[in-house]
Amino acid sequence: MDDDDKPVGRVLSRRRALAVFGAAGVAFTAVGAAVAANADADVAASTVSPGCVVKPEMTEGPYYVDEGLKRSDIRVDTSDGSVAAGRKFSLVLHILQLDGTQCKPLPGATVDIWHCDAAGVYSDIAAEGTTGKNFLRGYQVSNSGGIVKFTTILPGWYQGRTVHTHVKVRTTGTDGNPYEFTSQLFFSEEFKAVYLATAPYAAKGTPDTTNDADMHYADIGDQMLLEPTATDGGYEAAFAIALDLSDTAVGADDSFSTPGGPGGTPPTGTPPTGAPPTDAPTATPSA
Description:
Elements: H1 14-24, E1 53-54, E2 88-99, E3 102-105, E4 110-114, E5 137-141, E6 147-153, E7 164-172, E8 178-186, H2 189-195, H3 215-220, E9 229-230, E10 234-243, H4 248-251
Parallel strand pairs: 1-10, 2-10
Antiparallel strand pairs: 2-3, 2-6, 4-5, 4-7, 7-8, 9-10
């Protein structure tokens, strides 16, 4: 794939998603604490209604870097110990596989997320002046319940794109070959308006692109829309993604062939610096 963020495939409707999850016996209830995502259980709680999404794939774009950082908290830049400034955000992802008319947990999948910082800057991108940095990047391996959890910050924005977070799932297809799925997660305009008006996001001004004006969001709409809820320390959200592991076209390598090519104007801003916040993690990544 050679066009940044070009969607392919189909999306399971919310009504169909409910039917699929009901057939699978998967329960989704309000979460009392995000720690439920760390439990090695076949069924976990979720903060949102089920969103069994099948094949709403987008290419990874020019800002993916495989840092090989297995960690849940991706706020730390391990090169200097600095912590990305911004509103704390806990993201729980339920990774499932479509098996006939059912969705069942997909354990052992490698799940990456990456996104820009509050100023609209990605780490480890030469054009950004962030070579060697790795803030806001990392991966987890899904547990027996198909669950991974990340601690990060709410992303900022950059010219030509609405606010988004990238996600990549790597596993094995039904044919025994590597299977790679890449897409993006979004936020509602109402939610963005609240946090982007606060520090440190407000320093960048008002975003120039809404969800409706973003050509990539328009193709899949609210099927990839997160619904964060407030916590004592920030926000949390959960989202379910179901994969058809028999689809070799979707599962093919998603590598972006021309870094710096299509995909909108590169983000601008200053990489995160300064003292970590009081709830900052240490700079040592997990094994």
